[in-house]
Design brief:
Elements lengths: L1 H14 L5 E6 L6 H14 L4 E5 L6 H7 L3 E2 L3 E5 L2 E5 L2 H7 L3 E4 L15 H10 L3 E7 L7 H8 L9 H5 L3 E4 L4 H9 L6 H9 L4 H22 L3 H5 L6 E6 L6 H15 L3 E7 L10 H16 L3 E6 L3 H11 L2 E7 L7 H4 L6 H8 L4 E5 L10 H21 L10 E5 L3 E2 H12 L7 H14 L2 E3 L3 E2 L2 E4 L6 E13 L4 E12 L4 H14 L2 H9 L3 H17 L2
Parallel strand pairs: 1-7, 1-8, 2-3, 2-6, 6-7, 9-10, 9-12, 10-11, 12-13, 14-19, 15-19, 17-20, 18-20
Antiparallel strand pairs: 4-5, 11-16, 16-17, 19-20
Helix pairs in contact: 1-2, 2-3, 14-16
């Protein structure tokens, strides 16, 4: 079995240009992830592959340390942090050494403050972009979207977490599984933790009930990943019916993280794009709300980006009307919203006033409204979604061939690079100017449409990307321009600076192409390594090469 896995990964290595990622996943420490990773490293070495160990956490386990012997090891970087000597993986040396395969243990590890990247998975993304293949390890509880699920199952708050897309985009996932009885026996024998930690571990995290639930969770997650990878790629790319997912955020909503994680998994089950939307009322302008609320809101929107959402900020005092307008424009079929913090007083109900949730249910015809109790997210909430998923995928498949010839692409984008800082609206004007040569594009009406959309609110993806956009008449295909400015594109109204701006103009009908392009731009814009490479580019042609390369990788499933 292990030889077959190694042979399969070997074939991937020999035919790829960009680095490939393989993850050994387990349900707890001690199941044998690092051990299996090292076994494969020896197998690859025997086949003549240049393998090095970037970082391997043996935790003093004799069998694991024995397997590490005989493999080239990159020396760790040494730091002193708050008076404590700390060792971290030496990313620069790995990139300089350029082995064919590097072992990087514990993918969810948080680097010490001051490191080049905050998280180890970001180091791995740099390694992959350099064409180096990576074999890594991960426990299921470190997936961001499973935070509440794991806490309910084990009572443990997992502090080190990674975005789900890291696992979703891995080239191979291998389940490392042993029975919970065998794992507890290994723990008692001192093969997992040191002797002084054994009793505490057995009585807390390693209780049989905890381990069984984590094991089941791991098997479900891997099954979901296999299902996602087996779907028809044409059907996945075409949002032919209103089945996108959106989550409604509040600046003071309780446990917005749980809401976002649920929406992320809902979108994953339905295999749809998803959006996070915050409606800024006149009472919640940045100059009005306090610093604490601003910080909470900023953290919430950042988490939404990390979980894979395209984030929108709209303005409007009628929150329900704004939400439903967005739902119609972006083909949303599922609206996820948290339980209202306060109910409408009885005397106001006599006057006809109802809650936001009640209005959404009443006025949102054709839209499924999911109301989540963010104080206690129910385990069974996704069961109905699972039952619907197969039916919806069949519908997508039927529609795929009808529109497969009209896919949008970024390969014809116009590119501008600015050497000095620039204001948002000036950047938009210049990007629109380079688009004006497109057949059927009327510059004045396009500018009016962009301004109208910007007045509703801003759109940003990742930490550095903005996407001003609009649907207009007269054009037959999406028109895209990209502006890059290392010094920053400043949005005075929201007091925010980005460095990359996509300007997107789509035909007014059908809406599918607009939603599809937003999804593609969103996925590209969330790629940390891609953003770094774009910001390092000196010529427009270099930026276009990076766009085409990343878009090609997305279409091929890389």
């Amino acid at each position: 079995m292990n030889d077959n896995r190694a042979d399969s990964f070997l074939r991937l290595i020999r035919r790829s240009q960009r680095g490939r990622l393989k993850i050994y996943m387990g349900y707890a420490a001690g199941v044998g992830k690092t051990y299996q990773m090292l076994l494969e490293a020896h197998r690859l070495k025997e086949d003549g592959i240049d393998v090095t160990a970037g970082i391997v956490e043996t935790h003093g386990r004799v069998e694991t340390e024995a397997l590490l012997a005989g493999l080239e090891t990159i020396a760790l970087s040494k730091f002193t942090y708050r008076g404590i000597d700390v060792e971290e993986m030496d990313l620069d040396t790995i990139l300089l050494r350029r082995p064919s395969v590097v072992l990087v243990d514990e993918l969810a590890h948080t680097n010490i403050p001051g490191s080049k990247n905050a998280k180890r998975y970001q180091d791995v993304e740099e390694i992959l972009s350099a064409g180096i293949h990576v074999i890594s390890t991960l426990n299921v509880q470190h997936l961001e979207s499973l935070y509440e699920t794991v806490e309910r199952a084990t009572g443990v708050k997992v502090r080190e977490r990674i975005p789900d897309h890291v696992v979703a985009e891995a080239d191979q996932l291998v389940n490392v599984d042993i029975t919970t009885e065998d794992l507890r026996r290994r723990l008692k024998e001192g093969k997992v933790y040191t002797r002084e930690s054994i009793e505490t571990a057995l009585d807390h995290f390693f209780k049989p009930t905890n381990l069984e639930q984590l094991r089941e969770l791991t098997l479900r997650e891997l099954a979901a990943q296999i299902d996602s990878r087996s779907r028809d790629p044409l059907a996945e790319a075409i949002p032919s019916s209103p089945d996108q997912v959106m989550v409604c955020l509040s600046s003071r909503g309780p446990n917005s993280g749980a809401l976002l994680r649920y929406a992320s998994r809902l979108a994953g089950r339905l295999n749809r794009n998803w959006y996070a939307m915050y409606v800024q009322t006149s009472q919640e302008h940045p100059t009005v709300i306090d610093a604490t609320t601003q910080r909470i809101l900023s953290n919430t929107l950042t988490l939404a980006q990390q979980l894979g959402a395209t984030v929108f900020t709209y303005k409007g005092d009628d929150i329900v009307k704004t939400i439903l307008q967005f739902a119609r424009e972006y083909r949303v079929g599922h609206i996820v919203i948290g339980t209202p913090g306060r109910s409408v007083p009885l005397w106001r109900r006599f006057k006809g006033e109802v809650s936001i949730v009640e209005r959404l249910i009443t006025e949102g015809r054709g839209v499924t409204v999911v109301v989540l109790d963010t104080r206690a997210l129910p385990d069974q909430a996704g069961e109905e979604i699972n039952r619907q998923a197969e039916k919806k995928r069949r519908k997508f498949k039927e529609r795929a061939e009808q529109v497969s010839g009209s896919k949008a692409t970024l390969s014809n984008a116009h590119v501008l690079i600015w050497d000095k800082a620039i204001e948002k609206y000036e950047a938009m004007k210049q990007l629109l100017n380079v688009c004006s040569r497109e057949k059927g594009l009327h510059r004045e009406s396009a500018w009016d449409a962009l301004l109208e959309r910007e007045q509703q609110g801003g759109t940003f993806v990742g930490e550095d990307v903005a996407i001003p956009h609009a649907r207009i008449t007269g054009i037959k295909r999406p028109v895209i321009a990209l502006g890059v400015c290392k010094s920053g594109i400043h949005d005075r109204e929201y007091d925010r600076t980005v460095k990359i701006m996509f300007l997107l103009l789509s035909p007014s009908e059908p809406p599918e192409s607009h939603v599809e392009m937003l999804g593609v731009i969103g996925r590209i814009g969330r790629d940390d390594q891609w953003r770094r490479e774009v910001l390092s580019a000196r010529k427009s042609s270099d930026v276009m090469s990076l766009i085409r390369q990343r878009e090609k990788q997305l279409k091929s499933g890389d």
